[in-house]
Amino acid sequence: MRKLLSAVLLLLVMLLVSKVPVYASSAQAYQDFQYQFDLYRTSLSNYVTARNQYKQFNTLESSQDTLDKVKVYIAQRNQVAKAYFLFLNEKISEDPGLISTDLNLYRGLITNQVGFLDQNTAAPIGSLDDATKTSTAFIKNYLPMQMGYRQIIVGLELGYLSFFATKFDAAAATAQNLITASHGYASPEKQATLDRWLIALSNKHSLYQEQDKAIRKAMTSIKGDIQEQDRQLASVQKLIVSARQNLVEGTSYLGEVETALQYE
Fold first, then answer.
1. pLDDT in tens, 226-245
2. Which residues of 177-212 are buried (b: 16+ CB within 10 A; e: fewer)?
3. Rounded to 5°, angle at Cα 223 from 161 and 240
4. Is 167 left (phi over 0), alpha (psi -120 to 50) or beta?
5. Spatial contact of 144 and 93, defined as CB atoms under 8 Å apart
6. Domain boundaries, the chain
C-alpha cells in the first residue's frame, strides 16, 4: 500500500509541477543560442545599413562594405540556426522517455541540418552575386529546417509524456494487483467502488493511448509555410496538454483507489 501511495504522489508531482526539467548541458546550450542570436541581430542590422548605403551611393567602397557585411550576416545566420539545433540535441539527450528509434530519427535530422548549415557557411563568397546564390540555398532549406525544429520540439514533449505514462502504467498495475487481492476480504460495497475506479483508470489509459497515436500522426504532418507550421504545432500542443491532463486525472484516480483500499 505504501508503495502505491508513494508512486501516486511522485507521479502527480511530476505531472503537475515539472513540464520539462532543465539540465546544465541544455541550459548552457540555450545560453549559447541566445548569444548567437544577439550576434545575428547585430550582423543583420549592419548588413541592412551597408546595403542601404550601397543602394544610395553605389560606390566601390560601399559595394565592398556591403559584401563584407553580408558575408558576416550569412555566416552568423547559419550559426544561430545551428546553435538552436545543438540546443535541441542536448534536450534529446536529457529526455528520459525517448525510445531509440525516435532518438536516432531526431539525431539524424539534426546531423543533416547542421551539415547543410556548415556547408552553406563554407561556400565561397567573392561577390554580391555569390552572396545571393548562397542565401538562396539557405532560403530553399528554410521551411524544411523549421519543420525539423517543430517536429523535434513535439517529439521531446511526447518523450516526457511517455516517461510519465510508463510511471502511471506501473502504478496502475500495482493498484490492479491490490484490487484483485482484495476480492477475498473486501465488502461488496467496497469491491464495487474499487471496480468502478479500475474501469475509470482503464478508460483514461485508453484515451491517453489514442491521443498518443494522434500526436505522433500529427507531428509528421507539420509542413507548409511558417504560419501553417505554427498553426499545426499549436494544434498538436493542444493534444499534448489534453494527454497530460488525462494522466493527471488518472493519477488522481490512483489516489482514490489507495484511499478505498485503506478504509472500509
1. 999 999 999 999 999 999 99
2. ebbeeeeeebeeebeebbeebbebbeebbebbeebb
3. 20
4. alpha
5. no
6. 2-13+160-262, 20-145
Instruction: Give residues with Cβ within 8 angstroms of 123, minimum separation 6.
Output: 130, 133, 134, 137
Lowest mean pLDDT among 4-13, 68-77, 219-228, 238-247: 4-13
Query: Which CATH number is associated with domain 20-145?
Result: 1.20.140
Helix locations, 95-187, DSSP H: 100-122, 128-181
Find all residues with CB under 8 Å of 233, minimum gap 6, and list them. Answer: 150, 153, 154, 222
**Per-residue confidence (pLDDT) for residue 3, from 0 to 100:** 53
User: Which cell numbers hold the place of 17?
Assistant: 509541477
Confirm if 53 and 62 have CB atoms less than 8 A apart: yes
As a whole number of angstroms, the distance between CA 247 and CA 238 comes to: 14
* Helical H segments across the chain, by residue range: 2-17, 24-57, 60-94, 100-122, 128-181, 188-219, 226-262
Rounded CA separation 71/53 (Å): 16
- HSE-CB for 205 with a 13 A CA cutoff: 17
Buried b / exposed e along 54-79 (16+ C-beta atoms within 10 A): beeeeeeebbebbbebbbbbbbbbbb
How deeply is 230 buried, as exposed, middle or buried, from its count of CB atoms within 10 A (0-12, 13-18, 19+)? middle
Cβ neighbours of residue 224 closer than 8 Å, sequence gap 6 or more = 143, 232
